[in-house]
Amino acid sequence: MPSDGRAAPALWSNAGVFEPVTALPDHLRDAEGLWFCLRRSEVLVRAGDGGPEVPAGAAPPITSHTETLLLGVIGGHMPVWGVAWDDEPPAGHDVVDLRRLYGQIPEQHWILAGRAAQLLTWDRTHRFCGACASPTELTEGERARRCVACGHTAFPRLTPAVIMLVERGDEVLLAHGRQFPGRFFSALAGFVEPGETLEEAVAREVREEVSLEVRDVRYFGSQPWPFPHSLMVGFNATYESGEIEIDPEEIVEAGWYKADDLPPSPLGGMSIAGWLIKDWIDRVARGEVTKPEPEPEPEPEPAPSSGGSIWDRTAR
Q: pLDDT-derived band of residue 10, with 50, 70 and 90 as boundaries?
């Protein structure tokens, strides 16, 4: 849960809580379920009265598909499936890119679509062993593929990344990364390196990208990010020292901004970057963010004595 009290989207619906499972109980063999059919990054939806809907039923709405994975069960009675396919959508259905689908279907369904996308990609790209190149097969009782020859086991890939909003009193640091089209700013982010903590990754990424030092690194919240298989871990951090010097290979522009003068940037919405920025704006509005104390003026150096040094006076 983000630190502002906003509940991260939970995997449940009116039908109950989602539970990830790899084997379907016998009493659910013929149960109607939700079908997340993906053509790579495109999700199959049917035209509903209120907009796009995830297909539901006892069978998928498509007949030609390459792989079907059980994702889990909602409320103990509704199976949730992921299906990989490459054909044209059937009548009454369409495909929508996973990113664009956000906000068009219930948020819990969008998260499950992301889960399906990650697991289907993992399943497609791990059909052969990375150690000996022999075929692999799904294992029972866990989400894994095991090599039939050497026994090497591959689990779904998950890449942790940190995203951090650096605060300096009533200002925050935002940057225009080279990955953003147009002039668009966001919080700094980067992947966690082997052998470092999340907090160390925050400090290192800020140092590498804008040459600043931070302190008081505080956990904010996390978000699964299926583009392609990340877990975004959000933090707040406090400016410590340094002047902004960008890494031109990563950053186009970076600067300090006040809440009433932000550049184009996310605010709430689908990503944890927007949640971080909105949380900070809300704290500013509540008066919980204070301006930094001004640095004291340096004391002037004393004027030289007209009588010269003590050695001069002694010499006289």
A: very low
Give the Cα separation of 51 and 250 in Å (integer): 38
Q: Report the DSSP beta bridge partners of residue 190.
A: 162
CA dist list (Å): 155 to 125, 159, 311: 11, 12, 80
Structure pTM? Answer: 0.83
Distance (Å, whole) CA 102 – CA 269: 9
Question: Among candidates 121, 129, 204, which has minimal Cα distance to 161?
Answer: 204
Residue 42, helix vs strand vs coil: strand
- Please, are residues 267 and 186 in contact by the beta-carbon 8 Å criterion? no
Question: What are the DSSP E strand ranges found in the chain?
Answer: 12-13, 16-20, 33-39, 42-48, 51-53, 56-57, 67-74, 78-84, 93-97, 136-138, 145-147, 153-154, 159-168, 171-177, 188-191, 213-225, 230-241, 251-258
3-state secondary structure of 30: coil
HSE (CB half, 13 Å, CA atoms) of 203? 12
**SS3 label, residue 105:** strand
Structure confidence at residue 106 (pLDDT): 92
Task: State pLDDT tens for residues 106-135.
Answer: 999 999 999 999 999 999 999 999 999 999
Contacts of 91 (CB under 8 A, 6+ apart): none
Whole-angstrom Cα distance, residue 59 to residue 66? 15
Nearest alpha carbon to residue 211 among 176, 253, 246, 235:
246
Cβ density class 283-302: b for 16+ within 10 Å, e for less: bbeeeebeeeeeeeeeeeee
Classify 186 as helix, strand or coil: strand
pLDDT band at 315, cuts 50/70/90? Answer: very low
